[in-house]
Amino acid sequence: HSRVGDVLYVNSRKGGDNKELLEKIEFEKCNIASDNKIFDKLRDYQKYGVKWLLYMYKNKMGCCLADDMGLGKTVQIISFLSDRSIRSDRCSIVIVPKTLIYNWKREILKFNPELKINIYHGKNRRINDAVDIVLTTYGTLIHDVTILSKEKYNCVIMDECQYAKNDKSLTYSC
Questions:
Q1: Which of 18, 108, 125 is nearest to 117 (CA)?
Q2: How far is CA 72 from the centre of its chain?
Q3: Could you give the C-alpha distances from 133 to 14, 78, 113, in angstroms and in order?
Q4: What is the rounded CA–CA span in Å between residue 163 and residue 65?
Q5: Which whole-number Å values give the CA distances from 82 to 1, 37, 50, 108, in the listed order?
Q6: Counting C-beta atoms within 10 Å of the first and last residue's C-beta, which end of the chain has fewer, N or C?
């Protein structure tokens, strides 16, 4: 499991040994398990992307989903987070630029209204219990890194992660 301050990847585990490699789950055995009809709406390349995210998650590897703008990375992430096999008692956190936070909320509600969302942004922010996804911004992360890093997350998702690529920036250090 991931903490905001520890890693920048989906469910990444530091370290490991050869035994972990022996327990590797094969890509072909990663099947989507969702009651939501979102997966039926995806194009073939998007389904492949979701399956790849599941493969990486189940094998405890971090990853970067990168594609051209407009090809559906957001809906692939929502599909991934909708999968029953990755659901846990821990929420996932999605960190986005401020300009995209309500777009993410709208997309989640459109494609899977069953997912419970907590927007952790603005003046009266707090993490609510019993949510599936915490949506926050890079600016809020910088300001509240000590609060956010106390939580353990099932997945840490970073949209537009070029905000964190400069190793001298505050976002990178979070």
A1: 108
A2: 15
A3: 23, 10, 12
A4: 15
A5: 17, 10, 10, 10
A6: N
| Rounded distance between C-alpha atoms, residue 151 and residue 164, angstroms | 20
Mean pLDDT by 10 residues, the chain (174 residues): 38 42 64 74 88 87 76 89 84 93 95 93 88 94 91 90 62 58
Residues 6+ apart with CB under 8 A from 168: none
Neighbours of 121 (CB within 10 A): 18
135: left (phi over 0), alpha (psi -120 to 50) or beta: beta
pTM for the model stands at: 0.78
d(CA 56, CA 40): 21
Q: What is the pLDDT of residues 42-56, one digit of tens each?
A: 888 888 888 889 888
Q: Which two tokens stand for residue 87?
A: 């659901």
Complete DSSP assignment for 3-65:
-TTT-SSTT------HHHHHTPPPGGG-----SSGGGGGS-HHHHHHHHHHHHHHHTT-----
